[in-house]
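Journal club side-thread
Mid-discussion, someone asked how the predicted structure for our own chain would compare to the paper's figures. Pasting it here so we can look after the session.
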Amino acid sequence: MSKPFSPVVLVARLRALLRRAAEGPEPSISVGSLRVEPARRRAWLGDDELLLTARELALVRYLMHRADHVVSKTEILEHVWDQAFEGDANVVEVYIGRLRRKLSPCPDVGIDTIRGMGYRLSGRGR
């Protein structure tokens, strides 16, 4: 910060720094043999690293947090894209298709389509 500065601004910045430091990095998430390390922005399928785009990684993270629950396209758009997204909702189908192809070598993790409701990431054979 450059001088002169407001004490209110200083206190606000210090609180933000302390809050970020207290939260720490998000722990890794696993479903079956799929593992994501959000802090490193990397994903693995067994011992093999998955090459995911930023959007694919965000989508798989959201599905993993909601594993074994049905998630609608609307929910995915709100959490992975943003509420101001004005594109076609079918973009979700495109990204789900990409993730399915990348997860296909692994028999114990899959993305199921629940007709009329949405998608569910499941760890099969758990």
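Post-session note: The chain has a mean pLDDT of 86.
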